[in-house]
């Protein structure tokens, strides 16, 4: 299968998963559990499939967050609510927000068909657990019953499968977490400062990473976060390798199945993006 088609198929459906990180419903459900500290709901809800994970495990599997940011939430979150309770809250938030986003079409045959295709793809990857800890943890969860939640859970699995592969590509490129963020910002896909702020690295560590990347010929200079030709080729290789590593789930669907899944999920994702469910943010990798 063409790796680019795998990328496009993932991208077409990604807002269906990604809204869980931005919607008010998620914040409300985590606050009901007692998780009102900034970012705690995010770290706990995404890590809960791992069980009562240590901060070190979350740092390793999430890859690019400042470890001190993680330690503000983990493992303290597990003293507030069990992983099972957090996962249930996350699913309730997904249910509420997707119903709000999809409206009357939430129970249509198009959503059911998209869910069926996405589930087939996600289940097709379950024989490829090696080296994919976040995917493997989520693959061990029970499937929801309702179609819109099956679609959301399937896309969550596909996103974590791809994300685990992306970390492999970053490690192969010998980019540490801050360097990965700097080179991503240097692509100019996201506004300047978004990654530095959201991942909470001290400006001094960001600047030091820029110096290292300039010395390696990846940035124009430590003060100019612009990729050199070598840096551009490195990022292109990382994204291409990520696409290649993400192919297994989509190979099961074949080209026709991928095209059908894209045609079904693009209008659903458009409802999410246009409805402001992502807060103006377009999902992207690091």
- Going across the biggest sheet, name each strand in turn: 1-2
- Give the tally of β-strands: 2
Content of β-strand: under 5%
Roughly how much helix do the residues carry, as a percent range? 55-70%
User: H/E order of the elements?
Assistant: HHHHHHHHHHHHHEEHHH
SS field, number of helical segments: 16
Helix-strand category:
mainly alpha
Record keyword descriptors for this entry:
286 residues; mainly alpha; two-stranded antiparallel sheet; 67% helix
Write the layout of secondary structure elements.
Elements: H1 3-18, H2 24-33, H3 40-47, H4 55-62, H5 67-71, H6 77-80, H7 83-102, H8 109-124, H9 133-139, H10 147-172, H11 177-186, H12 194-199, H13 203-215, E1 219-221, E2 224-227, H14 229-245, H15 247-251, H16 254-274
Antiparallel strand pairs: 1-2
Helix pairs in contact: 1-10, 1-14, 1-16, 2-7, 3-7, 8-10, 8-16, 9-10, 10-14, 11-13
Descriptive overview:
It is a single chain. Helix 1 crosses helix 10. By secondary structure, this protein is mainly α. The chain is globular and about 55 Å long. The protein is built from 16 helices and 2 strands. The protein has one domain. The longest helix is centred in the middle third of the chain and has 26 residues. It has a two-stranded antiparallel sheet with strand order 1-2.
């Amino acid at each position: 299968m063409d790796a680019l088609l795998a990328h496009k198929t993932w991208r077409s459906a990604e807002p269906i998963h990604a809204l869980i990180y931005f919607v008010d419903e998620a914040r409300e459900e985590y606050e009901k559990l007692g998780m009102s500290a900034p970012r705690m709901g995010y770290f706990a809800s995404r890590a809960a499939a791992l069980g009562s994970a240590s901060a070190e495990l979350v740092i390793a599997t999430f890859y690019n967050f400042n470890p001190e940011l993680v330690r503000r939430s983990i493992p303290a979150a597990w003293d507030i609510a069990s992983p099972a309770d957090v996962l249930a809250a996350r699913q309730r938030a997904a249910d509420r927000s997707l119903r709000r986003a999809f409206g009357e079409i939430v129970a249509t045959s198009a959503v059911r068909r998209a869910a069926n295709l996405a589930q087939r793809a996600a289940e097709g990857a379950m024989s490829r657990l090696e080296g994919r800890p976040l995917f493997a943890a989520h693959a061990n969860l029970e499937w929801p019953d309702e179609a819109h939640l099956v679609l959301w859970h399937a896309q969550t699995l596909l996103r974590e499968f791809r994300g685990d592969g992306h970390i492999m590509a970053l490690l192969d490129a010998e980019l540490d977490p801050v360097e990965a963020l700097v080179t991503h910002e240097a692509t100019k896909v996201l506004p300047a400062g978004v990654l530095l702020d959201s991942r909470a690295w001290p400006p001094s560590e960001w600047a030091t990473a820029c110096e290292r990347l300039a010395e390696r010929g990846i940035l124009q200079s430590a003060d100019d976060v612009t990729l050199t030709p070598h840096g551009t080729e490195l990022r292109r290789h990382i994204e291409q390798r990520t696409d290649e590593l993400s192919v297994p789930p989509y190979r099961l669907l074949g080209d026709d199945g991928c095209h059908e899944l894209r045609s079904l999920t693009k209008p659903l994702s458009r409802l999410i993006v246009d409805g402001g469910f992502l807060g103006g943010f377009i999902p992207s990798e690091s």
